[in-house]
DNA sequence: GCTCAAGGCAACCATGGGGTTGCATATTTA
DNA sequence: TAAATATGCAACCCCATGGTTGCCTTGAGC
């Protein structure tokens, strides 16, 4: 329970940000739709604009999303650089799991 | 903001479970160490056994981990079937992000 | 049977997170 | 300029979550 401490400190906030249904949905929408304003992202949601704003800022703090001011609008888009880091984190865990699965199979089939 | 609702409902809890540093560390330890007892997982931690138990049960509720009683011990191990589902979720999001990245590059390089 | 170690259970606490309302501010646009 | 739109800010609420302590139960080993 020692080695991956730094890795964990980096990746846990990303998972935490993705761990809310509303935020995961926002990410999905931004994946599909490019840059959208706060109002656009609020439309079709059952919650308030302020609540959506809070969620978007959580995603921004996790580095998953970025906001650009344009006139009176605040446009939100995926953060490309951080997204790749997040992908690496996911891949790392996937590989760990692969190895664990391989070990389990060995044990079972022995 | 409509289509991926069911997918999201399934995957968000998994990310939420991984979104805590303590739990992410527990998963890493179990990846590396096979089945370990609650006491073993608590050793080396700054928190109480009961706290560790709560975290492990959160992971179990998310389907990431499973417990097996053995004598007076409670052994914890990764849940193979659910782990694969989680991997699929991660891959799905990775692909979404890949597509989003591709679109972004097209826009930038245009 | 006794003793010790591993857990279970329940109560309790503090904080943070998800949401809301109300009102002020800044841009468009007619 | 006036009206309408898109946000910002701050206070406030409620409850889930991460943690703790205290005490009881159960299995292992002598």
What's the helix-strand series of chain A? HHEHHEEH
- The number of helical segments of chain A is 5
| Gyration radius of chain A, in Å | 18 Å
Biggest sheet strand order of chain A reads 1-3-2
User: Uncertain runs of chain A with pLDDT below 50, 5 residues or more?
Assistant: 1-5
Q: Given the helix and strand composition of chain A, which structural class is it? A: alpha+beta
Major sheet of chain A: 3 strands, antiparallel
Specify which chain pair forms the largest interface.
A-B, 48 and 48 residues
How far apart are the first and last residues' alpha carbons of chain A, in Å?
A: 28 Å
| Average pLDDT of chain A | 84
User: What oligomerization state is this entry in?
Assistant: homodimer
How much strand content do the residues of chain A show?
5-15%
Level of helix content of chain A?
Answer: 55-70%
Please tally the β strands of chain A and state the result. Answer: 3
Could you say which overall geometry of chain A the principal axes of the C-alpha atoms support? elongated
């Amino acid at each position: 329970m020692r080695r991956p401490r730094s890795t964990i400190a980096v990746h846990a906030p990303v998972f935490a940000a993705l761990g809310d249904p509303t935020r995961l949905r926002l990410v999905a929408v931004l994946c599909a739709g490019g840059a959208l304003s706060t109002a656009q992202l609020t439309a079709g949601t059952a919650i308030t604009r302020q609540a959506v704003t809070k969620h978007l800022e959580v995603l921004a703090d996790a580095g998953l999303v970025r906001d650009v001011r344009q006139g009176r609008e605040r446009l939100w888009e995926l953060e490309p650089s951080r997204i790749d880091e997040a992908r690496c984190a996911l891949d790392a865990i996937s590989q760990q799991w692969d190895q664990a699965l391989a070990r389990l199979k060995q044990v079972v089939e022995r």
